[in-house]
UniProtKB/TrEMBL annotation:
It comes from Musa acuminata subsp. malaccensis. This is Hydroxyproline O-arabinosyltransferase-like domain-containing protein. GO terms for cellular component: membrane. It is a single-pass membrane protein. The lineage of its organism: Eukaryota, Viridiplantae, Streptophyta, Embryophyta, Tracheophyta. One of its GO terms (molecular function) is glycosyltransferase activity.
Amino acid sequence: MNVRRSMGRASPLFLVLLGLGVFFATYNLVTLVIHHQRRERRAELPGVDPVTRMPDELRRAEGSRRPFHVVVTATDAAYSRWQCRVMYYWYKRMKDGEGSEMGGFTRVLHSGKPDSLMDEIPTFVVNPLPAGVDRGYVVLNRPWAFVQWLEKATIEEEYILMAEPDHVFVRPLPNLARDDYPAGFPFFYIKPAEHSQIIRKFFPKEKGPVTNIDPIGNSPVIIKKSKLEKIAPTWMNISLKMKEDPETDKAFGWVLEMYAYAIASALHGVQHILRKDFMIQPPWDLKLDSTFIIHFTYGCDYTLKGELTYGKIGEWRFDKRSFLHGPPPRNLSLPPPGVPESVVTLVKMVNEATANIPNWDDGR
């Protein structure tokens, strides 16, 4: 009898081993199913989530239309004027499109005097920095221009989009900000953590870790006007201090003012929602996907076979710096076969704008 009872009853050790075996088999099966489900979803919905950081509760936030004012700072140089004309053309084309929350438009002209575009583009004239203060770095006038505009202008919208002359709107732009969280674009070359020693000159330890500083510039950013009114003076002051500091000036170079905005925002406790779909930058970004803005800051150089020759003038090229002293001609030649969609679209959009803007060739 004792033998039969011991044979009919499993030992505790055997039950434990059996339970573990069932657990691991079930775990592996569930993992395999989830893995295949994820693969299927990726196949059905190409691309990745463009939002790289947003508080979870804001992902679900929806509400009524929240228009934002589009503002671009500019000089009266021919180089700046033709870019503003192209940008404003595409703003008007996209403003009333489906899903747009684009409101009014202002070109903040920091030349201190009116120019020839006053009747074509809504413009607010502000003063430049005193002579010599920018030390040849004209972008240093941008935060000072915003400070003056915010103090003196009447702005109806609650939100503001800070844009640049070399931005082309390719889709109607909704308000990507959420309540007190502005939306910005993460630049791959803005790396606060790699410059922590310099950053600490302007962002003391008591303000928190350097990782609190977003990898952004001031543009493109959609932000509440009330937030920007607080950030702008700090942004201006930090920009000036950075330019005066030889180590900082050397380290940050042409993106100094971008770092200044990122630091100023963090000093005011402002965290940005980082939107990779905010814009693309040809020739590095090849496709439009679901982007809203093309930023044509880089030159696009290709062989006639469609091969990129960056750093070397190509057989075919489009580079805004080729037109420093006057606008590009109408009907630019299209890129050769094999050039990415982003570059082709950019040139087509420039051509459409120049074909429809009256008196385009004035000043050439």
